[in-house]
Write a structure and sequence with these properties.
about 50% helix, 8-stranded antiparallel sheet, globular, about 600 residues, alpha+beta
């Protein structure tokens, strides 16, 4: 729901010099030097100016991170995460009744017009879908999250409805700075001014569950995610009502194409974990461990986590979505936020001194910048595509732990001053923990695509749910066979992975085949990565590129695969490198880059 904001520019903050300030983990207070923050258009870097700090490579002062204090926080977090207490809330009958009355008034137009939407396709597509999207947006966070999640379920809903509901993915409520202050101070056990060197009152990102503030702690630039007020209570109440409403609609035989009961059931299992911010810290820890040997794959380091606040390292970078799906116009820099400066050294604790607002200097006007794939160096584009696929395949083949929202908005790329690029993954609130059966069935689909076998693919997809009570198995297999004969002839034919998968989802919906939530997470992530590749490296075939790793995994016993993974990655890297050289040669010779290697 929330993630780090790349491209914010330089963030100048007051920093500590020498020993730690009051309330830190070591030493007496020392003086701090505040500097105005400046914004730079293209790069986001944390920059501290410390009293007595040594000069850096560029001639400026460098803020030393208090590594002992940061390490102590990480050790304490390990102890805290071993005994997580999740928030729980059970709404009373009176609360349910009152909320149901409010929702009845909100949903009345949608319900009254549903019969007309059922019999008229043009009315359903042109009018009713838009009305449903606006109604869900007004109904509260649970319904917004359900709509956002449903917009990815092309297997359950028509494409027109998914596109309409997808507009709610940009819905981002914000709460007040005073509320953030209250929750953060409760989490850290003291005033912000005594705990942080600097804290941004204005959020830098917000979603339906939480919003993010930027701060500096122990000399380290951090992101502070704060859960919105009432999220747990609202979601618990609305889930209970949604489940009852779905059962009622299904019993009346209305909106049969929605399969509401199944999608609400799947959604409730997915979204509950995202409201508990300690689970994100757990997921980050697991991914940091899994990718410890990948220096160019970075996850934020969690430092402190409660149910409603998480503090983690701020990882600067540019969102890949800036290049894959740029809006019509980006204006940089944004108006800078205000910083809260710590109390001056020597001020008595009970002196009544107030927090000082330090306004940031406004940079000169910058020209409008339009971002797109052409702004990336060819090797950076190639790195984003290949490393994104490598990460996806490692999570699938080795870790059995998949980021549940692996779209370009949650991927950042860092490539400063000619350094080797790095990929940063954020927003680990939701993950899919894969069982052996889920891994085997999904890999069976990929292997069937590699061999161009539509009927084998159909058999694998029919295993994507424990039960298929309404599936038309025979006609589903016939349609899948025809689809593969048309668009998927196997490895070496450069199949359009996105076209194949969209055809599979259409067949799934046509023949009432159910797909479990973890399988859908794998499919949606693969579609996002394929779309990213089509934008940044049009000649790159994701299925052909995955062939070395998939075949290694198929032929090597499971216990031995982790030992052979470096060799498989080496082979894939050589294949990817040859593709890059061939694509660049094709472009230099006047080609359009569309020919597949």
């Amino acid at each position: 729901a929330c993630f780090h904001a790349g491209g914010l520019g330089e963030f100048g903050v007051p920093a500590q010099g020498g020993a730690a300030r009051p309330g830190s983990l070591a030493g007496p207070a020392q003086s701090v030097a505040a500097r105005p923050a400046r914004l730079r258009v293209l790069h986001a870097r944390a920059r501290c100016v410390a009293v007595g700090a040594a000069a850096g490579p560029g001639g400026g002062a460098v803020c030393a991170v208090n590594r002992a204090a940061v390490g102590a926080m990480e050790r304490q977090l390990t102890r805290d995460l071993s005994n997580i207490k999740l928030d729980a809330y059970t709404p009373s009958r009176i609360e349910l009744a009152l909320r149901a009355l409010v929702l009845a008034a909100i949903f009345a137009p949608v319900i009254l017009l549903a019969p007309l939407a059922l019999i008229s396709s043009w009315f359903r597509i042109l009018v009713w879908y838009a009305l449903l999207r606006r109604t869900l947006g007004n109904a509260g966070v649970a319904f917004i999250k359900w709509a956002q999640w449903s917009s990815t379920r092309n297997d359950m809903f028509p494409a027109e409805l998914c596109r309409e509901l997808g507009q709610l993915r940009h819905s981002a409520p914000c709460h007040s700075a005073s509320y953030s202050r209250k929750l953060v101070e409760r989490a850290v056990g003291q005033k912000l001014e005594g705990y942080f060197e600097a804290f941004s009152e204005r959020s830098i990102a917000s979603g339906s569950i939480a919003q993010v503030h930027r701060a500096t702690l122990h000399g380290l630039s951090v992101a502070v995610k704060v859960r919105h007020p009432g999220v747990v209570e609202h979601i618990a109440t609305d889930f209970a009502i949604m489940q009852g409403l779905a059962a009622l609609v299904s019993s009346l035989g209305l909106l049969r194409w929605f399969d509401l009961e199944e999608t609400v059931k799947q959604f409730s299992a997915v979204i509950g974990q995202q409201t508990q911010l300690q689970t994100e810290a757990l997921h980050l820890r697991m991914c940091i461990r899994n990718f410890a040997a990948w220096p160019d794959c970075i996850f934020p380091r969690p430092l402190l986590a409660t149910a409603d606040v998480i503090i983690e390292s701020f990882e600067p970078g540019r969102h890949v979505s800036d290049f894959t799906d740029p809006p019509l116009e980006h204006v940089r820099p944004q108006p800078p936020p205000k910083l809260l400066k710590a109390l001056p050294p020597g001020a008595p604790a009970m002196s009544g001194a107030r927090t000082v607002e330090v306004p940031l200097s406004t940079p000169p006007p910058q020209p409008h910048v339009v971002w797109g794939a052409a702004d990336l160096a060819p090797r950076t584009s190639h790195f984003i595509v290949t490393r994104g696929e490598d990460i996806y395949l490692k999570m699938l083949l080795q870790d059995n732990l998949m980021h549940a929202d692996l779209h370009p908005g949650n991927l950042l790329v860092r490539n400063h001053d000619g350094d080797k690029p790095a990929m940063i993954l954020v927003d680990l609130g939701m993950v899919a923990i894969l069982s052996k059966d889920e891994q085997r069935n999904y890999l069976g689909l990929l292997h069937a695509m590699g061999s161009g076998d539509g009927r084998a693919a159909a058999i694998c997809v029919l295993r994507f749910s424990d039960a298929q009570p309404n599936a038309d198995r025979e006609n589903f297999e016939i349609e899948m066979d025809a689809l593969f004969l048309k668009v998927c002839r196997g490895y070496g034919t450069a199949p359009d992975f996105g076209e194949v998968v969209r055809g599979v989802l259409t067949a799934v919906r046509n023949h009432r085949v159910r797909i479990g939530p973890n399988y859908m997470t794998l499919i949606i992530n693969a579609l996002c990565l394929d779309a990213m590749a089509r934008t940044l490296q049009p000649s790159y075939s994701t299925l052909d590129a995955a062939r070395p790793l998939l075949q290694f995994h198929k032929r090597v016993p499971g216990q031995l695969f982790p030992f052979f993974l470096p060799l498989a990655r080496f082979v894939k890297g050589r294949v990817d490198g040859r593709h890059f050289v061939k694509a660049q040669r094709h472009l230099r010779n006047g080609g359009n880059g569309q020919a597949h290697a």
